[in-house]
Design goal:
Layout lengths: L3 E11 L2 E13 L10 E2 L4 E6 L2 E6 L10 E3 L5 E3 L13 E6 L5 E5 L4 E5 L5 E6 L11 E7 L2 E6 L4 E5 L5 E6 L12 E5 L4 E6 L11 E2 L2 E8 L6 E7 L3 E6 L2 E6 L6 E6 L2 E6 L4 E6 L4 E6 L9 H15 L3 H13 L9 E6 L5 E5 L9 E5 L5 E6 L4 E2 L10 E2 L3 E7 L5 E10 L1
């Protein structure tokens, strides 16, 4: 059986100017149970197909058999955070967690605009940053990374990277590169490659306002060296679904409930992008060339009134709304733009061994239950169940989970929104 292929061309800009070259994005239609002519078969559940340098990796079942696979220990090895008490352990809006040498844990606590550093047993060591306009302070810290244990914090607006020594001493602040026309990109950092380049998503300069009511604006993926000043544009993708409308005669916009959106992350020498209409992840190399597409069967669940009710209750509980305001919120949700189907997944994470973890959609999207794990070659290994409450940051694109070879470091969130940083040991059979 032959494969069919759809091909489109997206303009790519090189660092410093338009290069005129095109990035070809391939959409190959591969039946989940049947390989195309020339396809390479692995086990019965995994098929790969090469087409003009792009590998399509399709899994119909996980590699791990019953009783095999990876799992997290039920009791966290380290817990950081309290409901009340010592201010050094009160966490608000944790955006990032990173494990440093000697087991130390760095926590980007956006609520206090600080990076809090703790010992391997969870004891507080020191803070860097704080809210303000000074050279070592932050207004909107967004992403934390480590450069040989040096602490690097990115801010989206103004676009900047602030460096601290492993012991917390301020080193320097540098502006992140702007657009090719000199305008600020307001970059959202989504990961760092092994060669030291930050991967950022940003609205292309001059992005036009849409004419249609429901629209997915475009975003561009850029890279720039942590110590450099030149950005390189790699590829574009469609952002989250939004409704554009007039409110009191003024243009407004709001997200579509359960709307489709894109997730982008990076690890080692690859960049990953997936859009939640289907369970399909594109894998690019560091130059922005598409190298692999990872696919597996995904749920195609229709949105029901029960999904909306659960979302209303969850939102109202977190906000402490009284019944009359809950009723108004429910009417607003049902009258507003609502997608017909639930997203196929959310959140992409690359672990220390270049495995891709894809967070599975659970219920109405208000809790985390499991991740599907894919090998570096794109094979679906199986699913890893995570403890109830181990949460992504809702509404955030940044990745609050770090996965090492033998641990998962993440943000646990209780019913009242209280956050803790927890480290779980990862066991591999």
């Amino acid at each position: 059986m032959a494969c069919s292929r759809a091909e489109s061309c997206v303009g790519v800009n090189g660092g410093g100017g338009a290069s005129g070259r095109c990035l070809r994005l391939f959409v190959l239609f591969v039946p989940l149970a049947t390989a195309c002519d020339g396809a390479r078969r692995g086990p019965d559940h995994f098929v790969t197909e090469d087409s003009i340098g792009v590998q399509i990796a399709v899994s119909t079942a996980p590699r791990w058999a019953g009783g095999q696979g990876w799992r997290l220990e039920e009791i966290p090895e380290v817990t950081i955070g309290v409901v009340e008490g010592d201010e050094r352990y009160l966490l608000h809006d944790v955006y990032q967690v990173r494990r440093m040498s000697e087991g130390r844990i760095a926590v980007l606590d956006a609520g206090s605009a600080r990076v809090r550093v703790y010992a391997g047993d969870g004891a507080h060591l020191f803070d860097v940053g704080g809210r303000g306009d000074g050279p070592a302070e932050f207004r909107s810290p967004q992403f934390l990374t480590l450069a040989e244990d040096s602490i690097v914090v990115f801010e989206r607006s103004p676009g900047s990277a602030t460096w601290f020594t492993p012991g917390g001493a301020f080193v320097r602040r540098v502006a992140t590169p702007g657009g090719l026309d000199g305008r600020s990109l307001y970059p959202l950092v989504v990961g760092v490659l092994a060669d030291g380049r930050a991967v950022v998503a940003a609205a292309p300069p001059g992005r036009e306002r849409p004419g249609q009511r429901i629209h997915r604006p475009s975003m561009a993926v850029w890279t720039f060296p942590l110590r450099g000043t030149e950005a390189d544009s790699l590829f574009s993708f469609l952002d989250r679904e939004q409704e554009y409308y007039q409110s009191d005669g003024r243009p407004s916009r709001r997200d579509v409930i359960f709307g489709h959106r894109s997730y982008v992350t990076a690890g080692e020498d690859q960049i990953y992008h997936g859009t939640t209409e289907s369970y399909s992840i594109n894998v690019y190399d560091g130059t922005g060339s598409l190298r692999r597409v990872i696919r597996k069967p995904g749920p195609a669940s229709a949105v029901t009134d029960a999904h909306l009710d659960r979302l209303v209750d969850w939102t109202a509980d977190r906000a402490g709304l009284e019944q009359d305001r809950r009723d108004a919120l429910k009417r607003s949700f049902r009258d507003g733009p609502v997608n017909d189907s639930l997203p196929a997944f959310r959140l992409l994470v690359v672990d220390a061994e270049a495995n891709l973890w894809v967070e599975n959609w659970a219920g109405a999207g208000m809790r985390t239950e499991s991740f599907s794990v894919f090998s570096p070659e794109g094979e679906w290994l199986g699913d890893v169940t995570v403890p109830t409450g181990l949460s992504w940051l809702r509404g955030s694109r940044t990745n609050p989970i770090e996965i090492g070879s033998d641990y998962v470091l993440g943000v646990w969130e209780g019913d009242l929104g209280v956050q803790q940083v927890r480290l779980y040991r990862l066991l591999k059979d």
